[in-house]
Design goal:
With 117 residues, this protein is of the alpha+beta class. The chain has one helix spanning 2-24, and strands spanning 28-29, 32-34, 37-45, 48-52, 55-57, 61-63, 67-72, 78-83, 86-90, 95-99, 109-113. Strand 7 (67-72) and strand 8 (78-83) form a beta hairpin.
């Protein structure tokens, strides 16, 4: 009986320690962000998606509600300009996902590295 109580105690303590760590790993919504470099841009239009790796943004910081322009550095052409509706911040990976729709999932989004909020 004592052994069962010890196991129960150890499992409870482990759960209480690990739960906050797993919750903090989830990206959270933030109102604005600043970043060092762009990882990629996933663009979805008319049901078709394309990922661009070599892109430049019109700014290295943004707030929800502002417009941002993405330019393809391979061709020099503007890919898209959209109004930022969501910014998700991954604290542990120091990355942000800048989206064109509200909530946690956007069809078109920009992934940036060295992100700060």
């Amino acid at each position: 009986m004592l052994m069962i109580k010890k196991i129960h105690f150890v499992l409870t303590i482990s759960f209480l320690i690990l739960l906050p760590l797993s919750l903090s790993a989830q990206p959270s919504q933030v109102p604005d962000a600043t970043w060092g470099s762009v990882d990629h841009f996933k663009y979805t239009s008319a049901g078709k998606s394309e990922t661009f790796k070599n892109v430049k943004l019109s700014s290295n910081s943004i707030a929800v509600g502002n417009d941002i322009t993405v330019t393809n550095l391979d061709t020099g052409n503007e890919i898209a300009t959209f109004n930022v509706k969501s910014i998700r911040y991954g604290r542990q990976v120091k990355m942000c996902w800048i989206g064109d729709s509200e909530g946690m999932i956007s069809e078109s989004y920009i992934t940036v590295k060295e992100c700060k909020r």
